Amino acid sequence: MAGGKRIRGKAQEEMGKVKEKAGEATDRDDLRLKGAGDQVAGKAKQAVGKQERKVKGTAEEAKGRMRRHT
């Protein structure tokens, strides 16, 4: 699931870039700001996905250690 969040986050970030550029091209501040917001949200989702992956890896590592010691 962490990989999915990272992919969706990257997609949202990229779409935000497109919206921001479209807003600049059409002189629409609302679209430009929406695009900038989407980029920030996308980056946040990617960061959450990375952290979830780290936590899952650490948990799996701990499980492996426990199995070896029992």
Report on the structure:
The model has no long low-confidence stretch (mean pLDDT 90). The chain is rod-shaped and about 65 Å long. Helix 1 (2-26) runs antiparallel to helix 2 (29-69). The protein contains two helices and no strands. It is mainly α and 70 residues long.
**Protein structure class:** mainly alpha
| Apparent shape | rod-shaped
State the end-to-end distance.
30 Å
Count of alpha and pi helical runs: 2
Q: Characterize the biggest β-sheet.
A: none
Rg result: 18 Å
Helix content: over 70%
| Uncertain runs | none
Query: How many individual β-strands?
Result: 0
Secondary-structure element series: HH
Q: Quote the average pLDDT.
A: 90
Strand content: under 5%
